[in-house]
Amino acid sequence: MIPANFDYESPRTLSEALDLLASREDAKVLAGGHTLLPAMKLRLAAPSVVVDLGRIAGLNHIRESGDRIVIGAMTPHADIASSKVLHASCPLLAQAASQIGDIQVRNRGTIGGSLAAAHPAADYPAAVLALDAEIVTASRSGERVIPATKFFTGMFTTELRPDEIITEVRVPRTEGQNVAYKKFHHPASGYAVVGVAVRLKKSGTKIDSVAVGITGVAHIAYRATAVEDALGGKTTAAIAEAAAHAAEGVEVLSDYYASAEYRRHLATVFTRRALEQAIEK
Amino acid sequence: MARNGKANSKGNTKQAAVWVGKKLKRKEDPRLIQGTSHYTDDLKLPRMLYCTFARSPMAHAEIRAIRTDAARALPGVIGVFISEDLTGLGMVPCAIQMPGLNVPHHPVLATGRVRYVGEPVAAVVAEDLYTARDAAELIEVDYEPLPVVVNMEKALEKDSPVIHEQFRTNRAFTHALKNGDIQSAFKKADRVVRQRMVNQRLAPMAMEARAVLAEYLPGENRLTVWSATQIPHLLRTQISVMVGLPETAVRVIAPEVGGGFGSKLNVYREEGLVPWLAMKLGRPVKWAETRRENITSTIHGRDTINDLELALKKDGTILGLRVRILADMGAYHQLLTPLIPQLTALMQAGCYKIPAIDIEIQGVFTNKMSTDAYRGAGRPEATYNIERIMDVAAHELGMDPAQFRVKNFPQPKEFPFTTVTGLVYDSAKYQESIKRALQLSGYETLRRRQKSGWKNGKYYGVGVSTYVEICAIGPSAATPAGGWESGTVRIEPTGKVTVLTGASPHGQGEETTFAQLIADELGIDPDDVTVLHGDTLAVPYGIGTFGSRATAVGGTAAYLATQKLKAKMVTLAAHLLGAKSSDVSIGRGRISAKGGKKSIAFGELVMAAYTARNIPPGFEPGLEATHFFEPPNFTFPFGAHIASVEVDGETGEVKIDKYVAVDDCGNVINPMLVDGQIHGGIAQGMGQAMWEELIYNDEGQIVTGTLLDYALPKAHLLPEFTLDRTVTPTPVNPMGVKGVGEAGTIASTPCMVNAVCDALSPLGIRHIDMPLKPERVWSAMQQARASAQTEPQPTHKPVSSRATQGTYVSRKASRSNA
Fold this sequence. Notes:
Strand content of chain A: 25-35%
Oligomer: heterodimer
Distance between the termini of chain A: 47 Å
Number of helices of chain A: 12
Mean pLDDT of chain B: 94
Structural class of chain A: alpha+beta
Radius of gyration of chain B: 28 Å
Order of helices and strands of chain A: EHEHEEEHHHHHHEEHEEEEEEEHHH
Number of helices of chain B: 19
Largest sheet of chain B: 7 strands, mixed
Distance between the termini of chain B: 52 Å
Strand order of the largest sheet of chain B: 3-5-1-12-9-10-11
Low-confidence stretches of chain A: none
């Protein structure tokens, strides 16, 4: 529980932070610390320098911008969970945020930190996938806009380059759409054993389009395209049958708490429940 | 609340309770909440060094070589120590003696072999903690892996790897307890109910992990050891033996201690090594455990496999009980390791009349950390066994589980009640607590909801648990290190009172409850009573706080010391007031004679005892008394708990919607603290039932070794508790108090499992092993539904099958719409 020696930098501007990442070997970004600090204490990570983004102005905000809501990367989960703007215009993200960890975790953790860490059972990945969100990054070589569907590359790995920092997350306004996030909490960690985010458009009982993001089930959060294909254009009566495809085509995780068989079963149940909850509204 | 159990009070000094029975806020809390007090790891001494350990990553291996050069070369490192460096340092003690007990060598650092993950191999001492940890990372150990055995049944097989070769077996002991004619009980039985139950391994997980700080002053030949311990005096004795100093040269201080649950009722390797290092290096040395170390290297609890057979008449009368227990010792014995399962045997009959019993326990060595006392220490296992088999039996007999229990209770007039295991239960009215719990829970309504729920595919369950436990540990003849306790009461010249208790607390609130008790006795305010503890230089020898003994044994010692003082006060007052002693009474702030016509203020009387200018002949000046109280028996608190749950038929998740606890701990000194103990106890017991499991995999690695994996009960997982109590004073001590530290834990574990199995009974599920995590419950349901489908012909004779996956399905047809 005692980390190896490291330098600590606390830049005041994004530009200074990007300079540090570009110039220092083996730097790690601190943006909440729930993944990095435990790894350092266990000496699974031993970065030479920790670059704390906590004092950079302009990374903590939630604002409307045309047909999108833009969320600063250093916005804590608690702010997202309680944001009036998000509750009105993109409640799925707020719902996911409200179910992360516990109060202390939600006050300290940030959306950028969580996305960059890419924990396979984190809550945001399911939501940003279902929302077709965009993740905006910055580095000395400029800005990139990465679609959420392209962002996660593996367990704890992303498209993010070592010299890049997430600056903001852009989510669509979802007024008129139906959304829900359903989660099976791990009793110790609070992570999702299964977390399902759904967003759909319907006219009457006909489902015009549907997006389903699932976390906790595989080594990487994914869009359940088999569910989407089975449900798109059908009526709500097809929900149960479509949900059965929740873990189709993915290698399902197995651990002491939930076997692959059980997780697969939960994925189906929670996908169905999320879809049912979404259409209730 | 009236102290109606104050059996021994002398009439002329008795007065109404003013403070006892009040919900006084804890005196301890302001300093603890504000963080202005000190735990061991908060202490810093000049020139203090920091100690850390290199621990084994292997569960079983020969140590071929340990290379420490790189660690020693690191600037700031004072020393690196391995087993062969530790000249003059003794073994880790085990206090248990019993015939045929195999006691392994238990060196302070691994010697030749490692036998569990987390076993310390080398100690590093450095100027700061970071350097110490860096150096520990540089220690290289060559391990030659040995076959690992973590499963008790495999460990007892002939071809199993043997953990301690000198014993040629992994069997640590065999212990039997038999009474009554068991053969004929089973021969006469109309029905025999059998069930295997696994009591899983748990981590005690005190909020404050362990910590040790030691300083040695060679000129004075004084070793001072600060340790997060429940037993400062016993630890002092053991440290003096381990490091080879006279006991008079050793002082142990337990500063603030942040919980223990039994895990600090022990003597650990580090408690010998850190003092030895301080003596060797001539500088203070501190070690503070990390949470990871706490999980791997502080004792664990439970870990038993229990096979039960209950012989019954068809009217529900119990004829006999046969129990076979395998108890996992881990790789070594800690202080009390082999004792814990024997407590299970003693309490195995629960609160029932059982004419014949046959218990056999085998202690087994495995490649794991040692087990030892964890909240309840053997009694939760006993209660789980009996309360679960009672429920299984009730279901098989088609009887209501509450009525089945009541049928087998001893009647109040039968107390003191001698059990089939040889204990004498002091006092109880089991009928009243269950009656109260049934009322409070709305039992009939719950049963109605359950029946209608089953018709609609809803699985509601009601769990009942009626428990009795063993507290106020205990008479010395029945304990390994003395079962008495010391109490010293000193009225200082200014009238302020100091109480010294040997029952060193670690969160129990004795500074408050003992002050309430003594304040009433002396007619003063609790604010004028200061309770000191945890320093062997200040407090006469004592035993410690565990086994729900602090108030019943330690409180009684202080109470009886106060009676000695009161007698002196009466003598002196009679002298000063010119009255007969028999006419003198101690009131609130004044001591009066002859119906209050003459009186003297408390403060004046106390001062007179110290100035000693006008004292009766032969009167010993001063006002200080010590009493060592030896209890004549244990006490046996009891109660009835009822849980109401709903199981999600699709996922196996359990929703706890109601929990009722009616407990009887005898007379109550502070109802708020009693309720707090019950609350915490229920939560901890539910933790075992629902969430907690310390899993070792086949390689002996801990799978749930962090708090991200090991699921402690959290507030949001728990329902609101409805508490009530009955009051049956014990005759065992003059205050009539029984003890309450473990009751909640003991009762709630079987109560929860009973509730969940009750919910699933229409599926033919009779038992699921703990913790009742959703997948386990779901699997049991899946299995039951599958077997219901393959067996369309229902048989009404359920067969108790011994499955391997921890779920047991009797071949009873599904009554639900599954």
